[in-house]
# Entry
Amino acid sequence: MGENTNDFEDPKSVRPPLLPDRYPQGDFFVCDIFDAVPKGDMASMEHPIFSLSTRPDTRIRKYEHKGAQIEIKPSADGLATVHDRDILIYCISQLMSALNEGKQVSQIVRFRAYEMLVATNRNTAGTGYAQLKAALERLAGTRISTNIVTGGQEVFRTFGLIESAEVVRETRDGRMQEVEIKLSDWVFNAIRSKEVLTLHRDYFRLRKPLERRIYELARKHCGQQASWRISLTALQKKCGSASSSREFRRLVKAISDQDEMHGHIPDYAIRLESDMVIITTKGSISVLEYSMRLEPETYDQARKSAPGWDVHHLEKSWREWMADGGLDSPRDSNRAFIGFCRKWFEKRGRP
# Structure
């Protein structure tokens, strides 16, 4: 089964390449939902765990790369999809936010369905809740056998992306209100070891599953590099695409053409040259993420300077402010960052 190709039409189409931002952060009533910065675990960003298809994908996948062996088995409902991964991203983000505040966390995560839908830019009508329930079933039903290393442990066993999910409370019309999820050991080990990467919020606005998958790979592989090159053959393998080579090339070219026209892929620019895909960082993202390194104790001082705020969110804001203003690297990055946090708190107070 290949990916749904209906979305990959003429890049000059009048339809905006990004989904609408349904819940702008400026909205007073939802701004607190965005305090946890979106984060994804590096293991599933590296490997093709999730299906790109918008129809039930019942294939059994076997994947091997540099010693990592993965077998992914779907349930009768099909494999978990790239869009189902939003639930994991939301859970990981909440737990990382708690860890950054020095709180204890567990594998069991409880959240309000409405807040999850808003944070991941989904609709909150009845269909949104129905899709959330179906996603939970696919996540629990997808089984993985792997030897991927997370948290310093090499895991050779079979497990689900989530161990269980329970709708704790429902309203009279049947819509779920609170959801309780038990994450797998595999995902929880990655969280405790902080093997996660920050994602741009516009990730949730990308329409096409393949765009999301390419963004994840770019986020994982670009690192300190200004660009990353990968062959179409290798990219198709990493994406887990079931399309023919010719069709996959067409899909990637459509994304490349549309990104060249609109620049809609967050953080990165995607270009297809011959049979190579070239991904370059936009602006100063490599500087934002990796230059002006901060000492571990600086984060503790930053938490005291801006109590209640996620220091990694503040760090990203600080680096973006430096880059957007065309400012030179400060003589003392640690002092400059703490000063930024102090002024941030003076202006905004507690989140």
